[in-house]
Amino acid sequence: MRGLMQERPLLVSGLIAYAEQYHSDTEIVSRLSDRSVHRSNWREIGVRSRRLANALARLGLRQGDRVATLAWNSFRHLELYFGVAGSGGVLHTVNPRLFPEQIEYIIAHAESGHVFFDLTFAALVEKLAPLLPSVRGWVALCDAEGLAGLNIPNLLCYETLLAAETDAFDWPVFDERDACALCYTSGTTGHPKGVLYSHRSQVLHAMATCSLDALAVSSRDSILLVVPLFHANAWGVPFAAAMSGAKLVLPGSLLDGESIYHLLRDERCNFSMGVPTVWLGFFDYIERNRATLDLSALKLERVAVGGSAAPRAIIEKFQTLLGTFLIHAWGMTETSPLGAVGNPLPKHRDLPAAAMFDLQTKQGRPIYGAELRILGADGTVQPHDGVAVGDLQIRGNWIVSAYFKADGPATDADGWFTTGDVAKIDPDGYVQLTDRSKDVIKSGGEWISSIDVENIAVGHPDVQEAAVIGVYHPKWQERPLLLIHRKPGRDPSKADIIGFLEGKIAKWWTPDDVVFVESLPHTATGKLLKIALRETYRDHLTGAG
Ligand code: AMP
Question: Is residue 236 exposed (0-12), middle (13-18) or buried (19+ Cβ within 10 Å)?
Answer without folding.
Answer: buried
